[in-house]
Write a structure and sequence with these properties.
Order of helices and strands: HHEHEHH
Largest sheet: 2 strands, antiparallel
Strand order of the largest sheet: 1-2
Structural class: mainly alpha
Number of helices: 5
Length: 139
Amino acid sequence: MINEFKNFIAKGNVMDMAVGIIIGAAFTAIVSSLVADLINPVIGLVTGGLDFSNLYVNLGKDEFASLAAAREAGAPVFAYGAFITAVINFLIIAFVVFLLVKMVNKVKDAALKKEEVAAAPSGPSELDVLMQIRDALKK
C-alpha cells in the first residue's frame, strides 16, 4: 500500500497539479491586488466615486448609516452592491487570466514551431526524389 502511494505521488500529473495549485494561490494574490488596488479605483473615478459594495436594502426596522453597521447589528440586509462588486471583480479577473493564458499559449506555440523547424528532415525533397526516379528510368 505504501509503494502504491509512493507511485501515485511520484507520477508527473500529481506533481504538476501541486505546482499548479501553489502558483495559482500566488497568482490569485497578484490578481486580487491588481483588481483592488489598480482597477477598482479607476472604475470608481469613472463612476464618480461610486462604491457598489456599500449599496444595500435594509430589510429590518432600524436605520443604519452603512452596510457594515447593519451587519454588525445583525440586521437583515439585501447587499446587492457586494454582489455587483463580486461580478465586476470576477469579470476583471477572468479577463486578466484570459490574457495570461493567451500569452502563455503564444509562447508555447512559438517554442513548438522552433522544435518543428529543428526536427524537420534535411534529406531530399519530394521533387528531388521524383527527379532521381525519372533519371534512373531513363538509363
